[in-house]
Design a protein that fits this description.
The protein contains 13 helices and twelve strands. It is α/β, with parallel strands linked by helices and 334 residues long. The protein has a domain of 112 residues.
């Protein structure tokens, strides 16, 4: 029944957060810049979370470019769009660097005691305000190829992958963090475009997918993350995905359509989500003050997201020859 992944306020746990983490509905935490000071501090915070919440799943968005929560001495990772740009001139080099990017990112995150970076972005780079250069390319074939290479690198480091934002946010202009977003296309149109990289990732065995808070009214009147039509019919039945389904942050503006926080939690679970993100501490406070449901979870799906670090110590990884090799490989991406 541990389905909530919560955001934390700062560099160490508060007494309130310790209480939240001990609640049976809480299954882990997601880390942000506000939780970052140094590798040693984050490793300590990760350990403290697990002391309160044994078996906690610890996540971050460490994509590179605009979305990189932890900074130096971790590597500065280039945005994925630079890999797509390189692919146009040198596909084989772009594929090699996509794998290097995924491996370097994953190895660094795992060395801090975290399990999962919510990556890679599988959206198309096709006009979205919030996606943009977070995506590899506007061409579905390029995205499929680079994303598969990126996931291969993540797996080399011992990290599962979580593609986002199903069924595709890259062609939708509004930012769902601050506005509602609607995509008027039919399911057939989406299957021929935005959904292709997700279908390829599923065929490749991707372990998790994050849902978009976008409404696709030709399929369902609800945002995808609150929609059984999208999760159970399209994702589970048609695309045969058996991995973990993760909601986007329930505190985002576009999630308000499902009601208050308790209603959002219920709607996400009813639709078929396995894990729910509540990222801002003030939102966590509202969720934890509500009457949370006892729900069975698919432990097997969630367990597949757990990290299996090849080198779980930052101090050892920092000077490892393999890390230096990967950094040198990526240095050409500017």
């Amino acid at each position: 029944m541990s389905y909530l992944i919560i955001g934390l306020e700062g560099l160490s746990l508060t007494d309130q957060e310790r209480e939240w983490l001990s609640h049976p509905s809480v299954g882990g935490a997601i880390f942000f810049k506000r939780n970052w000071q140094s590798p040693e501090q984050v490793a300590g915070l990760a350990g403290a979370v697990r002391d309160c919440c044994p078996g906690a799943l610890l996540m971050i968005d460490q994509e590179g470019g605009r979305v990189q929560r932890f900074g130096a001495p971790l590597s500065t990772l280039p945005p994925l769009a630079l890999l797509g740009r390189l692919f146009e001139d040198n596909p084989s080099e772009a594929v090699a660097l996509a794998s290097a990017h995924g491996e370097l990112m994953a190895s660094e995150v795992l060395s801090l005691g975290l399990d999962l970076s919510l990556a890679p972005v599988l959206d198309l780079n096709a006009g979205s305000e919030v996606i943009g250069d977070r995506a590899f390319h506007a061409d579905t074939g390029v995205v499929e190829t680079l994303a598969n290479a990126y996931r291969k690198g993540m797996r080399e480091a011992g990290m599962a992958a979580c593609g986002k934002h199903f069924p595709g946010h890259g062609t939708v202009v509004p930012d769902t963090h601050v506005a509602d977003a609607i995509d008027p296309r039919t399911l057939d149109e989406l299957m021929a475009t935005d959904l292709k990289p997700f279908a390829a990732a599923i065929a490749d065995g991707i372990e998790g997918l994050m849902l978009a808070h976008v409404v696709y009214p030709e399929v369902c009147a609800k945002p995808a993350g609150f929609s059984s039509a999208w999760i159970n019919e399209v994702l589970r039945r048609q695309l045969e995905f058996d991995g973990a389904v993760i909601s986007d942050d329930l505190g985002m503006r576009a999630a308000h359509q499902a009601g208050d926080f308790r209603q959002r939690v219920e709607a996400s679970l009813d639709a078929g989500c396995d894990l729910l993100l509540v990222c801002r501490p003030e939102d966590v406070r509202q969720v934890m003050a509500s009457r949370l449901s006892d729900r069975a979870v698919n432990a097997g799906r969630i367990e597949r997201l757990r990290g299996k670090a090849q080198n779980p110590d930052w101090n050892l990884l920092a000077s490892a020859p393999r890390r230096q090799q990967l950094k040198e490989q990526l240095a050409c991406l500017t």
